[in-house]
Specification:
eight-stranded parallel β-barrel, TIM Barrel, 5 domains, globular, 814 residues, alpha+beta, 53 strands, beta-galactosidase, domain 2
């Protein structure tokens, strides 16, 4: 009896085990059928597009943009020229280009340019013409956001103070308001004459208004505890909100709003602001110019304007054209391509709400958004800055926001310092820049498992496919804001195409590590070579001396290989070749560089870390890939290497350069593991600028730098790693910048202050964190202090002083 009972229990246990194992296998095996994918974009229905005097053309259909009749996916980075010293614009634009940005978006803040009624200022840091010319010089296109209303965390949302209190209904067709708006547009038009796309200039797009009939800013004229007065037309005040969000109440004044947007476009055209692309905010029922503007979208996973830290939906795949983020929307989604203007690469903070946006959150959101069908990425912000002030009269929005700093936790920070998020974003930016014409026409297809995934789901794979039914790209990631994710192991994905089933991987399974993402091609044709599938991600492609080069990157946890259709001859280094099912397999090591050649086409395979440190440089048909831990900027015929390690600057060049020379440094050739690549080391002498940073008590530091000499270095940074309420930087009686604590170390660059420091000391003041501070629930648990019986807490570690060097080198390409 006991024996039978034992076997019965054993049988039940065995059944449970096998059921669990089968469920695990089923859960980790995914399948998607894309054979039904068929999509033809609508053509000729939009009042958009144009040509220039050079014969270049830009067109817009219902799904993507075309440049010279080829699909084009813009990578748009936001950088506010008025928030950065004009002396350094050129270098910062070079950093943006090096990061893979192709279009610079910037606001023209009305209240800065017409601070006093009737007097316009376009000089110094407000010189929009010079900024635009520098964009052109660096090969960057421009999206000019001309207002009149901008928001951008600026006082009154950019509306001048002198408008307040007048019997004028702002942001409407009120004649008084249109008089001033038209005058602004006319002035902008004068400044930008000859720089529009039609004239051969870089400005391909103009944004009209911002978040119209969706959001507003508070007027700067207010009183503590008084109800907010909003910068919105009187009729719209009941529907507008503080930030980006969902409007589920609709808009009874939508027709009037559309007429205002149409009027603004007419005024812009009369002012000479004629562009092939006009954009307008599309999210949350904002109003656009029907068939005359592209509605641009947003996605903020860490907003400061919401009261909670709930995980967002912006890491879940969807058909983003049919179902835009922050829906419902005011327009017919079938008529317009999905373009993002404000994807949260960072976030501002307020005194009471302090989200910390880490760099590792950037790339997964972009992979999700592109994999969902977006055909244009827009990063807000891509480059931070400092909001101007007149003495201690602040042009920042107030309402708890920082008075000066607009660092925004962006890929490039307030002082031009590159953050950790800059490097991973290159993986998708470079991909879109060089493979975007291949991707843009492909339609998003979602697996059946997608409907059941919620933000809190940590076990189901998040993936999508963009395809025409046969060729395409597989997108996936393993990240969610405000949620701890785990590695997803033993995964396999089967894609049913019109030409058969493609398996990722073809043999075995793979692991998608926590926080990682991947974009894998299948049934693609690169330079005449048919690739059945690859478990390496396309990074960039280029030509040099008539030869084609494709650069791919491995993904940690996934065995890297490329499967070419048929039997082909391959030669290379760091590779293994074999045959499988009649196809040629090329396999690589995941942590080493390899290259090979097929029919005159070259492939370079980089580790993920090397790809993040890779830069495409050079002119058409004379391009090279530069790999270095230094930041690599193109500067005419030379390269600028920016680094904090002056004595050992590594440099790999592909294809190889015969020689590298430098006037500032010593160049030594190193051994390269690849025949078609060259390696070099550059070194320059260390410099010790004379500064004296003294801690005077537990909350104050004084910087004395009267003899500071930065002539031989690029910048000098002071970093405070502290825990407290906030940090304040003062000089000459004026606030220079400020920091509301989020746990991110506070970094200040001294280059812009070097003249003022000759005759002024700089003061740093830190305020303790209160035990009952309203923002504590926004901070990560590991940084919360143990207050004990104390009512406040302040901790300041030893400040770190780092010197940034710039070394120019010239490549001998003979």
């Amino acid at each position: 009896m006991k024996k039978n009972k034992f076997f019965k229990v054993l049988a039940i246990a065995t059944l449970i085990f096998w059921n669990s194992a089968n469920n695990l296998i089923a859960q980790n095996n995914y399948a998607i059928d894309i054979t039904g994918s068929r999509f033809e974009p609508l053509l000729g229905h939009l009042d958009l597009g144009g040509h220039n005097i050079k014969g270049d053309t830009i067109g817009v259909n219902s799904f993507y943009i075309e440049y010279n009749k080829k699909p084009f996916i813009p990578v748009v980075g936001e950088f506010h020229f008025s928030r950065y010293p004009h002396q350094y614009w050129d270098e910062e634009l070079k950093k943006m280009k090096a990061g893979g940005v192709t279009v610079v978006a910037t606001y023209v803040f009305w209240n800065m340019h017409e601070f006093r009624e009737g007097t316009f200022d376009w000089t110094g840091d407000l010189d929009v013409r010079h900024f635009t010319e520098l964009c052109a010089k660096n090969g960057l296109k421009v999206l000019m956001r001309i207002g009149p209303f901008a928001h951008g965390e600026i006082r009154n949302g950019g509306l001048p103070d002198w408008l307040y209190g007048r019997p004028i209904d702002v942001r409407s067709n009120d004649k008084g308001y249109l008089f001033y708006a038209n005058r602004l547009y006319q002035e902008i038009g004068k400044q930008l004459k000859g720089l529009l796309f039609k004239d051969g200039g870089p400005i391909i797009g103009v944004q009209l208004e911002n978040e119209y009939q969706h959001s507003s800013a508070p007027w700067g004229f207010t009183y503590q505890d008084a109800p907010k007065e909003r910068t919105a037309a009187s009729r719209d005040r009941k529907i507008v909100q503080d930030g980006v969000g969902i409007n589920d109440m609709g808009n009874e004044f939508a027709d009037v709003g559309k007429d205002h947007m149409k009027t603004l476009k007419q005024l812009a055209i009369k002012a000479g602001l004629i562009a092939p692309i006009y954009t307008a905010t599309g999210w949350g029922f904002a109003t656009i110019v029907e068939k005359g503007s592209i509605p641009v979208m947003a996605g903020y996973a860490y907003p400061f304007w919401t009261p909670s830290n709930n995980p967002s939906p912006f890491y879940l795949f969807k058909n983003i054209q049919k179902n835009p983020d922050y829906s419902p929307v005011s327009y017919d989604v079938n008529l317009y391509p999905s373009l993002a203007a404000e994807l949260g690469t960072g976030m501002a903070v307020t005194y009471t709400r302090r989200p910390r946006v880490k760099g590792e959150s950037f790339l997964p959101m972009m992979v999700r958004t592109v994999g969902s069908g977006t055909n244009g990425l827009g990063f807000y912000m891509y480059h931070g800055g400092t909001t101007p002030s007149v003495g201690n009269y602040f042009l920042a929005e107030g309402a708890g926001l920082q008075n000066k700093s607009y660092d925004y936790q962006a890929p490039i920070g307030e002082f031009g310092n590159v953050s950790s998020g800059y490097y991973p974003l290159k993986l998708i930016n470079y991909f879109l820049k060089t493979y975007g014409n291949d991707l843009a026409p492909l339609y998003p297809i979602l697996p059946s498992t997608n409907d059941s995934i919620k933000a809190e789901n940590t076990k189901t794979l998040r993936y999508s496919v963009r395809s025409d039914g046969n060729r395409g790209y597989l997108f996936m990631h393993n990240f969610q804001d405000h949620i701890v994710m785990n590695d997803l192991k033993d995964l396999k994905i089967n894609i049913t195409t019109k030409s058969g089933i493609i398996s990722f991987p073809e043999t075995g399974t793979f692991t998608l590590k926590t926080g990682s993402s991947a974009i894998f091609p299948f049934n693609v044709n690169y330079n005449g070579l048919e690739i059945r599938m690859a478990t390496v991600q396309p990074f960039c492609r280029f030509t040099n001396k008539g030869k084609h080069y494709n650069v791919m990157t491995t993904i940690d946890g996934i065995t890297p290989e490329i499967v070419f259709k048929g039997k082909i001859k391959i030669t290379g280094t760091g590779i293994k070749t074999s045959m499988r099912n009649g196809n040629t397999i090329v396999a690589f090591a995941s942590d080493k560089t390899g290259d090979f050649q097929v029919n005159g086409v070259s492939f370079l395979i980089l580790s993920n870390n090397d790809a993040k440190n890779a830069y495409l440089s050079g002119k058409t048909d004379d391009e090279r890939l530069i790999i270095s831990k230094a930041l690599i900027l193109e500067d005419g015929d030379q390269l600028s290497l920016i680094t904090t390690n002056p004595e050992n600057i590594d440099l790999a060049i592909y294809p190889a350069s015969a020689n590298v020379s430098s006037k500032e440094g010593t160049v030594t050739k190193a051994k390269s593991p690849l025949k078609n690549s060259s390696k070099w080391q550059v070194s320059v002498p260390k410099v010790n600028p004379s500064i004296n940073l003294v801690q005077t008590d537990n909350s104050h530091f004084v910087l004395k730098a009267g003899s500071l000499d930065l002539s031989k270095v690029n910048d000098l940074f002071i970093t405070f790693d502290y825990r407290g309420d906030r940090g304040i930087c003062m000089m000459n009686g004026e606030l220079q910048t400020d920091d509301l604590y989020t746990s991110k170390p506070w970094t200040i660059g001294l280059k812009r202050y070097q003249e003022a420091l000759k005759t002024n000391d700089m003061y740093f003041h830190f305020v303790p964190m209160a035990k009952d501070a309203p923002y504590l629930n926004y901070l990560e648990k590991e940084v919360l202090p143990d207050f004990g019986t104390n009512k406040s807490f302040l901790e300041i570690k030893q400040p770190i002083i780092s010197i940034e060097y710039k070394v120019n080198v010239v490549l001998d390409i003979k």
